[in-house]
Amino acid sequence: MVDFEKLKYLLNVIPVEFTKTADARFQIEKAVSHAEKCTTVITGMPHGSGGFHSQVEDGAIRIAELKEAFAESLKELERLREELKPLLPLIPVTHRAVIQLRYINGYSDAEIAEAIGKSREQVGRYRREAQKMITGEKK
C-alpha cells in the first residue's frame, strides 16, 4: 500500500532537482561551512562539560549524520515511487497524469495546473480522487 503521507513529506523535504533548496541540503551546507571555518582546539583546555571539544570534529560528525539521513530519505522516496508506478494504470488518464507529475516528477499542484491547463482546485481534486482509488478508500 502506497503511503501518500510519507510521499508528500519526502517531496517537501527533499529537492527533486538538486537546484532547488531543501532544508536537509541547506543544513548540510551550513555544517560544512561551519566546519571549514573552525580550527581544532590547540590549548588542551577542557571546554563545556569537562571534556575536550573540537568544533571541527563536531562539524564533521554532524555533516556525516546529515548526509546519511539525506541519503536514507532519498532511498525511501525512490522506494515509494517504485511502489506507486505499477498502480498508475489502475486510474483514469487525467488522474494518472496528476499523480505522475506530483509524486514521480515532484511538481507542485500549481505547476501541474499550469502544465495540464486545469485549475489548482481541479488538480487537487484529481490527486485526492486518484489517491483514494489507489488506496481503495471509498469516496
Average pLDDT taken over every residue: 77
Structural class: mainly alpha
Compute the number of strand runs. Answer: 0
* Total helical segments: 6
Computed Rg: 21 Å
Short description:
This protein has 6 helices and no strands. With 139 residues, it is mainly α.
Describe the 3D structure.
By secondary structure, the protein is an all-alpha fold. Helices cover 65% and strands 0% of the residues. The protein is built from 6 helices and no strands. The chain has helices spanning 4-13, 23-37, 55-84, 93-104, 109-116, 120-135. Helix 2 packs antiparallel against helix 3 (55-84) and helix 5 packs across helix 6 (120-135). The longest helix is centred in the middle third of the chain and has 30 residues, at 55-84. Residues 17-21 and 39-52 have low confidence and may be disordered.
Keywords:
single chain; mainly alpha; 139 residues; 65% helix
Set down the secondary structure blueprint.
Blueprint: H1 4-13, H2 23-37, H3 55-84, H4 93-104, H5 109-116, H6 120-135
